[in-house]
Input
Amino acid sequence: MISKETLLEYIQQFLEERGVLLDVSSLESYNFIAEGELDSFEILTLTMGIEAHFSVSVAPELLLDEKNAIVGNLVNALTESI
Output
């Protein structure tokens, strides 16, 4: 099982590598689609990275749900589904 903290750290590092610098308190409320920082290719890259790094499968339905564009919601959905 993936811990919420580990997944948040992974996503924070992913965003930092793309120039999005957020402190931990801002990370969970960050909406990566509304901010326009990640395009569809980057979202796919993030998803594939999570799958490879944590040896899990991310359900496509999680990515289609608009509320999961907020990092905290995505992390919660992933930790509940895995």
